[in-house]
Amino acid sequence: MIARRTFLATTATAAAATEISDAPAAAGSPTDAAFMSLLTETADRRAAELLTTYGETVTDLRDRGRARAAARALRTFTSVYVHEDSAYHHSRDLLGPLGELADVLAAEQYDDGLYDQGAVHSPPDTAFSVVDLNLAYALLERDGHRATEGVRRTVAGVLRKAGPGLAHGGVHTANHRWLVCSALARIHGRWPDPAYARRIDAWLAEGIDRLPGGEYSERSPTYSAVVTNPALLTLARHYGRTELYGHVRANLKATLFVIEPNGEVESVHSRRQDQTALRYLPEFWLQYREMAIRDGDGRFAAVAALLHERGTEQTFGETPLGDRLAEVLDRPELARPLPETARLPEEFVHHDTDCRLVRVRRGTDTATIFGGTDFPEKQAISSGLSTNPTFFKMRKGAAILDSLRLSPQFFSLGHFRAEGLQRVDGGWRLHAEVRAAFHQPLPPQHRRADGDYPLSNDGRFWSAMDFPHRTKEWRTLRTEILVRQVSGGAWELDFDVSQSAVPLALELCFRRGGSLTGDGLTPVAGQADTYQLVSGEAAYTVGDDRIVFGPGNGAGGKQPSVVDAGERYSWMNGSLTPDGIRVLITGRSPLRYRLTIA
């Protein structure tokens, strides 16, 4: 078993080793007792919850092949079982669940060592489970309790069987490469195989996809926190690739500027599914803690200390705090006291040119300007692309404007999505020019008597019209938006929409939980929680916090209160309507209009 005094003394002396050593280091290292107490208490509560629900996880694995939840449950049970300070230390109550989870993970593993979670015989989805099982096995083996010998044999069999599948299988996404590498690294460290090292080296030889500003290519806080950073830290520690610490360090520095005061993390610039979802800082907790201790970085220490201070009352996202104990038992250096904290950045203007993202913070007031979707270059709405049309967001304490979008009704091409974001005198410039064609008759040399022309795309839709060979008659819509902060913290957004006469709507979407007031507000028929600001100013209020915006810009048949998401969505009955309380300000181009938000 792990004696408490031994656990507290274990250090990261093997950080650069290519082989795993579970032998504890010499005694003497101090520990953060309050941190360990918090983790232990929450892990015990988490284990108690899992004892009542793990049977459903077992059934889900048997019926649907979903191994990840079962592997995570086994990891969590393991952490409290081996930890001397846990109420479940060497508890017989956990032996049955541990054995059952291990047995079903072995039984449902295919002959090639893979699982079906997410996709048929999926190496990356299997790697998620293997990462947890690697960690659980290391803790059980180090603990050495006779009662878990059978569980250890079973888990070892799963890991050894998974190795070849991970070493020869492929992946889907950028972060999967590092996930598979981290899973293989620990298997290789315990049961070496040249094929494992070759595959790890081959993936790593592609280069880590970190942008100069610190974000990874997917620009996703979810995958940075949950996959890429943990995987690179594992490879640094267990495969000797200590240069990978630099990538994690850069990503954590970049993340400092997208943290909201309430613990959310900005994700509007993401290329993954979280680009329209809320994500939370606690997912980065142990990464900030590890790099703070490793580097003596006061800002990283401040993040870790803040998360500790907020404790169990904060939102944790997809990883409950109780699941974290296993990581700290596996990496005892994480239990060391934090270095002296430094003040976190609370007054800044930060421009990430790689993501075309601007973040402005003044105390508890923040704003985001975004002009970096992939749509102008790719002309596609697809998984893996940044397509969120939100170009401005702001917060004043608890009053949150989650989204500001512009939707012109121009050939059903959808929302304004900037083609660039530039710093200009007094502010930031967003711009886009879109065009659509009317097509002239085919030249004689391309005409066919049978009328059987190629199916082709005119940029908006497909038709058997041989569009490439036709002369075009173009219609153009040009949009410029100048965003600047003025005295008193107010924001002014100047809109210049020209070259075609079309209806348009500005859509402001506020976080639920507050109230709207304003004499010029009228409900929009048939659209829940949606209003049109026809005249004057309106306010959105949450407690003592308030956002005032306006003015309204009239109403009428030529400027309907309609948000046109575009044919790419409407054809598939898709929706871009954000959740919240929406206010529309309508108009018609050519239009020059100033929106003030304060």
Bulk shape: globular
Category from helices, strands and their pairing? alpha+beta
Largest sheet: 9 strands, mixed
Strand line-up across the major sheet: 3-4-5-6-7-14-20-17-16
Summed up, the helix count is 15
Q: Return Rg in Å.
A: 28 Å
- Cα end-to-end separation: 59 Å
In short:
The chain is α+β, with helices and mostly antiparallel strands and 598 residues long.
Question: How would you sum up this structure, described in words?
Answer:
This protein is of the alpha+beta class and 598 residues long. The protein has helices at residues 4-9, 33-64, 68-82, 95-107, 123-143, 149-168, 174-190, 194-204, 221-238, 245-255, 285-295, 298-310, 325-330, 375-378, 567-570; strands at 264-265, 279-280, 347-352, 357-362, 365-370, 392-396, 399-408, 420-424, 427-439, 456-457, 462-463, 472-485, 491-498, 503-510, 515-517, 521-523, 530-533, 538-542, 545-550, 581-588, 591-597. The strands form four sheets. It has a nine-stranded mixed beta sheet, with no helix packed on it. Strands 8-9-12-13-21-19-18-15 form an eight-stranded antiparallel beta sheet, with no helix packed on it. The protein is globular and about 80 Å long. The protein starts with a helix and ends with a strand.
